[in-house]
Amino acid sequence: MAFTLTWYGHASMGMIVDGYQLLVDPYFGDNPVSSITADQAEADFILISHGHGDHTADALGIAKRTGATLIANYEIANWYEEKGIKNVHGQHLGGGFKYPFGYLKLTLALHGSAMPDGSYGGNPAGFLLTTNDGKKIYLACDTGLFGDMRLIGEEGIDLTVLPIGDNFTMGPQDALRAVKLIQPKHVIPVHFDTWDLIVQDPEKWAEAVQAETSTKAHVLKPGQTFSLD
């Protein structure tokens, strides 16, 4: 079954996997580049990589409206449970769980994770998804470059999604180095151009990726979808 990923802008993404709608780091209302509003977002599962407001802003409302299961590290999962979300599943770095859509593992990410109200948000994470038909999807989420990306790459990654905005995450040069470590078949850049502070040239970055690696780079505009057959 085809896998699709839609980039909504910033780090918010929707994925359809085996007919299930996954929503990653929902941030719509205050997102100046979002292609949808929070009330248009649908989800069977909501994945939260860390606690910052530009990754969690609309998760509570969407989870209550849709009844989606919220997946995050244990601290964030507990935080949402205390807010009245009944369907939560907490994991931790290196731990995986078999969901109906596939096997999802939390990976290392170099970042912060305080919740919007200042509560402890545990460790930030990325996501490594193995779909039921064997596709490998690595969402690095908000992170700096780290050498163990090479170990993640040893899984045989079909698609990776990397931040390139700099200042808060990897910039273009480190993201290019990340591609060389991971060696995915495809890569999509995110977490750029939301504000002036993280404006980048994604087309120039994609050209560098394709000139220096065998990875195919795909630059999406907010609202556009990539399919992996």
Commentary on this structure:
There is one protein chain. The chain has helices at residues 53-56, 59-66, 74-82, 149-153, 172-182, 202-212, and strands at 3-9, 12-17, 20-24, 45-47, 69-73, 88-91, 96-99, 102-108, 125-131, 136-139, 159-163, 186-190, 216-217, 225-228. The strands form 2 sheets. A 7-stranded mixed beta sheet has the order 6-5-4-3-2-1-14, with helices on one face. Helix content is 21%, strand content 30%. The protein has one domain (3-219): Ribonuclease Z/Hydroxyacylglutathione hydrolase-like (Metallo-beta-lactamase, Chain A), CATH 3.60.15.
Descriptors for this entry?
globular, single chain, alpha/beta, 7-stranded mixed beta sheet, Metallo-beta-lactamase, Chain A, 6 helices, 229 residues
CATH superfamily, by name, is Ribonuclease Z/Hydroxyacylglutathione hydrolase-like
**Gap between N and C termini:** 7 Å
The coarse overall form would be globular
The CATH class assignment is Alpha Beta
CATH architecture: 4-Layer Sandwich
If you average the pLDDT, what whole number results?
Answer: 97
Rg value: 16 Å
Query: What low-confidence regions span 5 or more consecutive residues with pLDDT below 50?
Result: none
Indicate the CATH topology. Metallo-beta-lactamase, Chain A
Helical amount = 10-25%
Largest sheet: 7 strands, mixed
